[in-house]
Amino acid sequence: MKKLFNHTKRPDRNWEEDVQDGYDWDEEQDGGEYYADDEEYTDEEYTGEEDGGEYYADDEEYTDEEYTGEEDGEEYYADDEEYTDEEYIGEEDGEEYYADSEEYTGEEDGEEYYADDEEYIGDEDGEEYYADDEEYTGDEDGEEYYADDEEYIGDEDGEEYYAGDEEYYADDDMAPARGGKGKKSKKQGGNKIAAIWTKFLNMSTMDRIMTATGVAVLILAIVTGSVYASARMVDHQVSEFVSVGSQLDGIQMIGEQGMLAVADAKLAKIAAANAVDDENEEQKEYDEAEYTNGGTVELELVSVQKDLKIKFTNKKSGKLISNVPFSVTITDPKGKSDTWTDDDMDGIIYKKGITPGNYTVAVNTLTDEKYKDYTLPTGTQKVEVRKDIAYKKVDVANEIKKESEVNAAKEDTMKNDTVVESILEDTVQWVESKKLPPTYREVAKDTVVNPEKQTAYSGKFLRIADAKITIKKGETKTLTPPDAGATDMKWSSSNLAIATVDEKTGVLTGKEAGGPVTITCTYTVPASATPSPVPSTNPTATPTTEPTATPTTEPTATPTTEPTATPTSEPAEETPTPTPSSNESQAATQSMGSGSLPVAFAQAGGTQKTYTWEVTVTADKAPDATLETTSVTVTPGATATAQVKVTDYTGATTYRITANKNDKIATATVDEKNGKITVTGKAAGDTTITVTVTMGSVTKTLDLAVKVTNGIKITLDKTAVTVYPKSTAAVTATVSGSGTITADSGDKNIATVAVSGKTITVTGVKKGTATITVTYKEGSAEAKATFTVTVAGNVNPREDTKTPLKDTSGRQLYVSIGDNQYRAAAYADYYTATKFFLMEEARYTGWQTLDGKVYFFKADGSKVTGEQVIQGAKYNFASDGSLVVGSGTMGIDVSKWNGSIDWNAVKNSGVNYVIIRVGYRGSSQGALIEDPKFKTNIKGATAAGLKVGVYFFTQAVDEVEAVQEASMVLDRISGYKISYPVFLDVEGSGGRGDAIDSATRTAVCKAFCNTIKNAGYTPGVYANKTWLTSKMDAGALSGYKIWLAQYAKTPTYTGRYDLWQYRSDGKVSGISGKVDLNISYLGY
Fold first, then answer.
1. How many domains does the structure of the chain reveal?
2. Any bridge partners for residue 440, and if so which?
3. How many CB atoms lie within 10 A of CB 751?
4. Are residues 935 and 1074 in the same domain?
C-alpha cells in the first residue's frame, strides 16, 4: 500500500489533529452521497465505505485523508492529514492499516507490524493492537478500546461510549462528532437481519435518520442503567496518554488479557533489538522518555579544516543530546542564510567542504510540545571555519563511544595481513618465568655471633670483637686468623674512613684517628662432612648465664664440613612471580611467640668461620698523664701504691707531690723516675694527695683519693659488668674480716642488686648504665667499693624471638624445622638450636628482571650468556648473564584481544615496555570507539613499573578525521605517564580506511603525528613492510618513529625503523594465549 500511494515518512505527527469537535457526520448508503452545507466536494473527507457507500467530511481536502482501515471492501480515511502520510494500522480479513513514520517490527502468521509514533502492542484472537498518542486499553468479547483525547468507556450490543472532551449523549439529538480510530461492529448474518437492512436502505434520507435515532434511543434506554453506571465507576480518567508504561501503572483495565498482550509485545520488541548485536553487547534503544528529559542545551562549535561540527550538549552532564530534531540557522561569510538539521538526531550536525570564514549560528525553536522542557541557547554564536589545519587537539570527548554502543564485530575489523616470512631457530628453549625454591647449606655455629656478646649501639647490636688492636694513623699491620690452614679468606672493614684492610692479604692500615672499627675475616678450614639437619623447635627462653667482664678468648679450631663457595647475597628486590605449581616447594610460616618469620624448603651442606678485631686508630697528640688507679684504701701503718701513666711523650718527665689535704691521715712519696706513688696510712679518715707531672713544656696535676680504715677493707673481682633486661651478672667481694656486706644501685630503674654472702648479683631492668656501691662493715668501721653495670638493649637475647639472627656478614640465618623445611632464625635460636643454615642464592627460570638488569634463565636455573635466539629473536648477553641493551629491548603490544593480564608477571618476564591500544575508529560507521581494556591495561602496566606507549587503529579517510583520532588519544591518555611513543596503527581492515590512496593515507599519518607532537608526545606510525613500501610514502614520515611489522629472521625492509614487531604468536608470563613481540632500538 505504501508504494501504491507513494507513502513517505514525516518526522513528527500531531495526533491531536485527528480529534476535532463540532463536526456533523452525514452518511450516504447505496451509492448515495451526502455533503454538509457550504462545503465543496474537494473539502470533504472520505470517512468510510460500506456496501459501496462513501462518506466525506467537510473542510478537508481529499489529499489530506488518512486511510484508517478496510474491512470487507470498506475503506476509511481521517481528516487533516496528507494522503501520503498514511499510517498502516494492520490487516484483518483483507483489511490493511498504516501509520505514518512507522517502523517495521516483525511479521507473524503472514501479518506485518510497524511501529513508530504508534507502537504495536499485541495480537490476540486475530485482533491487532497499537499504541501511539492513542492507546489501546483492552479487548473483551470482540470489542476494542482506545484512549486518546477521549477514553473509550465501554461497548455493549454494538454501541460505543466515549469520555473525554465531550460527554456521552443519550438523547435524540446527534452527539458532536469525534475523529480518530474506531472499530465497526461485526456484521450479523441471517435473512431476517438482511431483510430489515434492505428495507432500511430503501427509506428516504430523513426516514433513515429518524429510524436510526429511534432505534438508538430504544437501545440506550435498555442498557444505560448498567453500562453508564459501570462506566462512571472508573476512577482514573485522563485526557491524554503519553506512553504505555506510564498509563498502565495504577489504571484498572478492562480485560486482563490485554495487559498481558502489552507486556509480551514489549518484551518481544526488546529481545528483537538485542538480537541484532553479534557480540551480545547492550544496544542503545530508542526510548520516547528521552524526549522529556529536558535541561539546558549548550552548543559546541568545532572546525578543523573547511568543516563545521555543531554539537548539542546537556549543560549539566556535558553529554550529547540525542533523539531531538535540532536545527540551526547558519549565516555564511557572504551573508547567505541556510537551515541545517540534525537528521539522524544524534546530537551532532556536521558539514564538510564548506567555505572558510566567519559564520554565525542560531538555534531554531523546537515547536513540538514534547520538547518544551529544553532550554535552548538564545541569540547567535560566531565561529570561524578554518582554512588550514592547526594540528591541535579538538574536543571529541563526548563523541567517543563504548563498544557496548556499537556493533563491535562490524567496526573492529583489523586484519593482520603480515605474513610469516622466516623464523630464526631458537638456540635456547623458552621457559616460563618462575622463581625456584631455594637451597640451604649448613654453617658452623662459631660463625654465628652470640647475641649476648654484642653491645647496643644506635638501636643495633654490634659484635664484641675476638681481639683488640690500637694503631696510629698511617701505621700498617698484617692480620691473620687464629686457625691454621685457613683458606678462601675474605676481609672487610666496618668503617673504611678510619681503617682499611686489603681484601686478599689482610693488611690493616690506619686512615684517620677514631674507632673502634670492626675488621672481619671470613674463611674456611678443612672439615668433615656435615651430618643431616636435625629439626629445631621454636626458640624458647633459657636461663641466662652470668656474663663475664673479661674478653672472649680466641677460639680454637674445630672440625667443620668440606669448604664450599661463599654464596652471594640475595637480590635486593624480588619481583613478584607466578604462583608455583603443585609439585614445587612452597613457603610457609612458623609462628615465633608474638611475631613470625618466613619458612622455606631446601637442601643442606657446607661451613665457614669468622674472626674479628676491634681496631682503634690514634693520631699524634699532646703529652698526657693519668692515674691508673684514682683511689686507694689503706690501714694505719700500712702502705698502698698508685701509678702515673704518661702517653704521647717520650722525653724526660718529672713527678712531684705538690699537695696533701690532710697529712695526719696519710703521707705519700713519688718516684721521680717512673711516677710510682707510695701512700702510708696514719689514722682513719680520708684525704687527697696531689701529684704534679711535668712533660717538657706540658704540666698535668693528678688527684689521688686516699681512705685510711681501722684495719678493714673490701675489693671486688670486677669493676664493670654487662647484662640484658631480666638477665643477671655476679660480682665477688673480698673482705678483710667477717663483717657484713651490703650493696645499693644508683638507679633501680636500670638495674637492681642483691647480696648473698660475698656475691653481689645485679639484674638488668632496662637499657642504660648504673653504679653499684658495695659497703663492708665491722662494728663502727666500714669500707666501700663500686662497679658499674651496663644494661644493653631492651630485650634479653635468650627471650628474643623476633630479632633476626645473622652471621658476621649480616646474612640471615635459618634453622631446620624438619621435612626439608627451614625458617628464619631469631636471637633465641642461638641458645637452643644446634645447627644453622644460610640460604643459597635464589634460582630462577625464564626472563627475569633483577637489580635493574634483565636475564634469561634456562630450565635448570642457569643464566644464558653470549648470543642467543629466544622465541625467534636474537639477543646478546654479557658474561654475567645480563642482557646487553644495545642489542634491542624486548616489549609487547596488547589490546582487548589479550584478555585479562597479570602485569606483575609480565614485568618479571623481562618485558621492558608495553604499547597499549587506546581505541579505534569504526570500519563501517566511522565512530571513535575506546578499547574496553585500555584503562585496565594502562593502570596495571604503570603500577608494575613498565614503560608505557599507546597506539590507535585508524580508519580516517582524511586529515580532519586524523586530527579527531589524535584528539581522542590525547583525551584518553591525559593523566597517565606515557614513556614510549604514541603510534597510529595503519593496516588493513576491509573497511572505509582501505579505500583511500597512498597520498591521502600519508597525509592522514602526518596529521595524526603532528597533532600528537604538538601536544608534547613522541608520535610514530605502525605498519608492515607491504604497507610502508606500497600504500604510503614512508619517506615523508622521517620525522616520526617507525614501528615495522615483519615476521622474518631479519627485517628486509630497507627504510628506517625504530621498533620491530618480529612475531605475533609469542608467549609471555602473565598473558594467556599469544601476544605480539617487539624489539625496540630506541635505547630506552
1. 5
2. 839
3. 27
4. yes
